[in-house]
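QA checklist item 7 of 12: single-chain prediction sanity check.
[x] sequence parsed
[x] length recorded as 367
[x] structure emitted
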Amino acid sequence: MSPEESASGGPSPGPSWWPRLLGRLGVAPEGEPSAAPETSGEEPRRRDGGGPDPHPPSLAPDSAHLQAALRTLELSVRRRLDGLLQGNHLGLVPGPGSEAGDARVYQPGDDVRRMDWSVTARTSEPHIRETIADRELETWLVVDLSPSLDFGTGGCEKRDLAVAACAAVVHLTQGGGNRIGAVVANGTGLVRLPARGGTAHVHGLMRRIASTPRAPEGTRGDLVGALEALRNPPRRRGLVVVVSDFLGDTDWSRALRALAVRHDVLAIEVGDLRDEELPDVGTVVLADPESGHSREVTTTPTLRRRFAAEAAAHRDRVAYAIRAAGAGHLRLRTDRDWIADVVRFVVARKRGWSGQGTAPLAGGGRA
């Protein structure tokens, strides 16, 4: 029996399925987020008052408060990223650059090719020479906002997390004459936003991404089309950041490899705990938002184990395809402190300059 077949002989619910129709049975999904409060442009706080809320604000495209939510997101990203990285954003900029910077003490994991032997000999302690990243970087965001992202149980929707990830990339790469553009796909069409610089352009770009309409359920995503749109016509060499949940087939892998030949590529995978595990809630109706198909199942221990195993296998396939393309891989999840995960990735990338491998997660867990 193949992994796609259940004990009853039919297809088992894969990782893109989730009980979106539980309301028909009167069963609420475990961890269903409540309606988002209105935002005032101030940094969100935890409900217990214990510090900044680790989740991005609700960024519903049809919300009357979208502009305020974007201001809240920008404030949170700027304060937390600048505070944790101390203004050093070079870890996301591709390559170590060509201009020599300061020397510092060697740390495990540093690229030995950057050893400064003269300082090492003078101090009798291994040192490496930092380099300053080249300026006028052109960054392109490829943003997947297909229906499978219109869902979340960990404090926000995956769509909100995808937009927040874009805001972090924009903050880490803007300035110094750098230009930022985007290709946004929701399954019904592509929107191309030209690469330009300046604060007004950045704000407009984020507003356009966040206000992308939700596609009707039953609409399939088109990540391949978005990646191909960035290849033709050819863009100047730069940084390409692909933001998606990468659910479904890995038919995008060839287009990703082709982009990585010319550009430094980073794949940001946004997910939710319920993409990986089914809760024990009895009989539920699972629906695939990108095909419109639904199925009633009972969440038995066997089904939950099979679901988790197939979800883990799918994540492994995604990670392999990204790694094979030579791209960096950052995983974010709706129930985690996403900014902390971004910081860990940037720090690890800055040390290695390899641009490959997944950022370590707090506690050694998998996202």
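[x] summary fact logged: The longest helix spans residues 301-324.
[ ] second reviewer sign-off
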